[in-house]
Design goal:
Length: 358
């Protein structure tokens, strides 16, 4: 049987089919790119548009990032290779405070800073919340998005197992045979200051007086070394001690090991920020998205740092387990000093260290 369709019916059918095949979002126009925006969604709508805007700027300027610090050499190269953006490195050895002081003349796009320097200079930063914003603990980010932690570490005891037994507490360092050092003068060097505070932890609280008293006892016992070269144990961040242990690994008796004793451990993080006057605002935002991505966070892990999103990566199965297994093991609860606690403790050390420790 032959079915005949009228010309009018054919036109209606054709129009209906054509209408059904047209996506509802066809020809939808995206808003203009806003490189100064405070989020990917508000400024670029998609990652592709952020990448496109950053590539047009063609370069990024970073400051205070030595290539051998936290695997930054590989991180910089990976970013540059991934997006075809040249990374200009200025004053790689700059301290956090120096980064801020040099900003006017060197014009960096992004900063890598200690928490206290970031908090004190928050007005110099442009707000920008990276996509995995919710993965960053609230106490490690500015509510307005001006700065947020990227990576950090735990205070630890590195020791030579050929000379001393593994310490199970800071009190063990008072035993005969130990020769202990700090990486610098705690009145001047931040790491040494944190070493004193780590030794003072009790009940989850750090107290400067307790730390100074402990190191005074170390000196009185003859266990405080004048230099690291003469020490059999060094109180330092675990990323420093772990890197040294990796370099000295091999043979029947490894030359360096790392312990994180106690139920609590002192922790600290370095934070990231975008300059309010960044010459390359899109590239700066792309850099932040990269280092807070799963790949970027695992690259910090490769440098023995503890990425701020480590727990989230672990929960989602994107953490590099092989790299994570190389970090010093601990079940201790991290303790992070607040800015007021840090200021009070530093004032105490400057007043009392010389008289009680020397």
């Amino acid at each position: 049987m032959t079915v005949r369709i009228s010309a009018a019916a054919a036109m209606i059918l054709t129009a209906t089919i054509a209408g059904c095949s047209t996506p509802a979002t066809e020809n939808k126009q995206l808003p203009p790119v806003k490189p100064q925006a405070s989020s990917l969604r508000d400024g670029f709508s998609t990652m592709d548009r952020l990448v496109e805007a950053a590539r047009k700027e063609s370069s990024l300027t970073v400051i205070g990032l030595p290539r051998d610090w936290m695997n930054y050499g590989e991180i910089i190269d990976a970013f540059s290779d991934e997006y075809g953006i040249k990374v200009n490195q200025v004053e790689p050895g700059a301290s956090s405070q120096r980064e801020i002081e040099a900003a006017a003349s060197l014009k960096p796009d992004v900063f890598d800073l200690s928490l206290e320097v970031a908090v004190a200079n928050a007005s110099a930063f442009a707000p920008y919340r990276v996509q995995p914003w919710q993965d960053i603990p609230d106490n490690l980010k500015d509510y307005g998005g001006r700065w947020y932690a990227g990576y950090g570490g735990y205070m630890s005891i590195g020791y030579d197992p050929r000379k001393v037994a593994a310490p199970t507490s800071y009190a063990d360092l008072l035993k005969p045979g130990y020769s202990v050092s700090l990486p610098g003068d705690p009145r001047q060097a931040a790491t040494a200051f944190n070493g004193v505070m780590a030794a003072s932890l009790s009940g989850g609280r750090a107290e400067a007086a307790r730390g100074v008293e402990f190191f005074g006892r170390l000196k009185k016992a003859g266990n405080l070394a004048a230099t690291q070269g003469a020490a059999s144990a060094v109180v330092d961040w675990d990323y420093h001690n772990a890197e040294r242990a990796a370099h000295e690994a091999g043979g029947d008796k490894p030359g360096w090991k790392v312990a994180i004793p106690g139920e609590n451990v002192l922790s600290a993080y370095y934070v990231q920020a975008i300059s309010k006057n960044a010459p390359h605002p899109a590239a700066a935002r792309l850099w932040q998205e990269f280092i807070f991505s799963d790949r970027g966070q695992n690259l910090f892990l490769k440098g023995y740092a503890r990425p701020v999103r480590m727990e989230a990566l672990q929960m989602r199965g994107t953490l590099d387990r092989e790299l994570a297994a190389k970090l010093p093991a601990t079940d201790a609860k991290p303790v992070i000093l607040t800015i007021p606690e840090t200021d009070t403790a530093k004032t105490y050390l400057k007043r009392e260290w010389g008289a009680k420790v020397g």
